[in-house]
Specification:
Blueprint: H1 18-26, H2 31-34, E1 41-46, E2 49-55, E3 64-69, E4 72-79, E5 98-105, E6 116-120, E7 123-129, H3 132-135, H4 146-151
Antiparallel strand pairs: 1-2, 2-7, 3-4, 4-5, 6-7
């Protein structure tokens, strides 16, 4: 759990202080969330397969494009506001909307024909199968027997 410094908001007669606005504007850790949509992702490798998960709550899968070109897997799309209340003034807004694009380098020897994607309950899951060449090879050291290495 990350520990962050809590700073109480200054209150002027308008309910906010210009100094707080300046601090928020230049705080770099908020750039990705305050100025557009930036989906969270995770990946892991299991059984020579790369699994990539992308959180896309509220994103229509029809608005998502997945492409692989020159060793780069790109996921792009847009999270659209479902409804805007005309004539209303939002008191606060914590939900992020907008276009996004995330690109990753993948080994050139992936089995392109077997890449699959599935979208369920706001989660996009990609499965990327690696070829045997990408898996790697153990290279023995000349003059060293396996039984000696295991004993060490």
């Amino acid at each position: 759990m990350a520990i962050t410094l809590w700073k109480p908001r200054s209150l002027s007669r308008f309910g906010w202080d210009f100094g707080d606005w300046i601090d928020d504007f230049f705080r770099m850790d908020d750039w990705s969330t305050s100025y557009g949509y930036y989906p969270s992702m995770e990946s892991f490798i299991k059984d020579n397969t790369v699994h990539l998960r992308v959180e896309l709550p509220g994103v229509d899968p029809k608005d998502v494009d997945i492409s692989l070109k020159d060793g780069h897997l790109c996921i792009s799309g847009e999270r659209k506001r479902s409804k805007t209340e005309k004539g209303s003034c939002y008191c606060f807004e914590e939900m992020n909307y907008g276009k996004f694009s995330r690109c990753f380098h993948v080994p050139r020897d992936v089995d392109v024909e077997k890449i699959s994607a599935k979208y369920e309950k706001g989660m996009l899951e990609l499965t990327i199968y690696l070829s045997e060449e990408v898996k790697g090879k153990k290279i023995p050291i000349e003059g060293v027997k396996e039984e000696y290495k295991k004993a060490a």
